[in-house]
Amino acid sequence: MKFKHKIKEKLKGVLNEEKLSLLPRGFQTLGSIIIIKLNPLLLAKKKIIAEGYLDLLPKIRGVYLNSGKIVGPFRKPEAMEFLSGEDDPIVTHKENNVIYRFDINKIMFSKGNLNERRYLPTLVKPGEIIVDMFAGIGYFSLQIAKNSQVEKIYCIEFNPEAYRFLLENIKLNHLEEIILPIHGNCKEEVLQLSTSGIRADRIIMGIFPAPFPYVQVALAVSKIKGSVIHFEGVVEKDAYYSLFEDFKKIAEQEGYKSELKSYRFVKSYGPNLFHTVLDINVEKN
Ligand SMILES: C[S@@+](CC[C@H](N)C(=O)[O-])C[C@H]1O[C@@H](n2cnc3c(N)ncnc32)[C@H](O)[C@@H]1O
Question: Which pLDDT does position 116 carry in this prediction?
Answer without folding.
Answer: 97
